[in-house]
Amino acid sequence: MEWNELFCEDQKPSEDEIGSYIGNALWAQLNSYLQQTYRCVPVTEYSGCSMQKGWNVKYRKSGKGLCTLYPMPGYFIALVVIGKKEMTEAELLMPLSSAYTQKVFRETQDGFQGKWLMLDVKDKAVLQDVKNLVGLRVKK
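The structure assignment produced for this chain is given below.
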């Protein structure tokens, strides 16, 4: 069953329900890492106009968005916005990133606010890439 069919706009899922739906240990690993490393609390919100409609989990630090996580069956999507200030560092990080992340970075068009990277987190290499990219967001 689709995520939006399980949890409509007026039925907020719990952290356990999100984890059960995803069914991938990488979800818990990233959430734990973000909370412990950046001392931030996840906020579950419903979005009707995003690139991925439905419930998502947002992380912010000092008013700045670190990433948004979108539950999928068996994996999740991590949206990390690479702003103009982080672009040079992100470009330097790409040769050290997985081939998949490099491809997404190359193929994502630059926008007014930078690149909006939508990364399917299905393996540990991409999980590490997300951690590294989020780290660029915190430095600025």
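Interim note for the steering committee: The mean pLDDT is 90. Residues 93 and 132 are 8 Å apart (CA to CA).
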